[in-house]
From TrEMBL:
Keywords: Hydrolase, Protease. This is Aspartyl protease. Pfam families: Asp_protease_2. It comes from the Bacteria. The keyword Electron transport does not apply. One of its GO terms (biological process) is proteolysis. The keyword Protease applies. GO terms for molecular function: aspartic-type endopeptidase activity.
Length: 141
């Protein structure tokens, strides 16, 4: 089993908590995503996915009800997603509108995010977050 370590960026939400960001590569672009252990699955920004629709397979937009709201989603397949040295191929994802998240981040002086890495990936690769070293560790065979 190989260990993959990825640097974590800690951002302060005006002393009301913190978010963890990691840099990943999607569509050959480096993007920032939130690392969210409470998210059941990973999602990407709908506008970001739509700009690359010629590169992804997708199904029609649909309504999805979450615990807190009803949102329009888009299902897509990302050909290659890299988190550090971990490369995932044909990754099936859901796209949501993350504009309000980015507006809040912008108002706090934080960078824009293009997605959220959730428990589907974190559980599968036995993720460990080391706050002291500011690293995400993933374990792949």
């Amino acid at each position: 089993m190989r260990t993959i370590n990825v640097p974590i960026i800690l951002i302060n939400l005006q002393d009301d908590g913190f978010h963890l960001l990691v840099e990943i590569v999607v569509f050959r672009q480096k993007i920032l995503v939130v690392l969210d252990t409470g998210a059941s699955r990973s999602v990407f920004d709908m506008a970001f996915i739509k700009t690359h629709l010629s590169e992804v397979e997708y199904s029609e937009e649909s309504q999805a009800t979450t615990l807190f709201s009803t949102a329009t989603t888009l299902q897509a397949v990302i050909p290659k997603l890299k988190i550090g040295r971990l490369a995932l191929t044909d990754y099936e994802t859901v796209a949501l509108d993350l504009e309000s998240v980015n507006q809040t981040y912008g108002s706090l002086g934080h960078p824009e995010i293009k997605g959220i890495i959730g428990s589907d990936i974190l559980l599968k690769y036995d993720a460990v977050i080391n706050y002291k070293k500011m690293k995400l560790y993933l374990y792949a065979e």
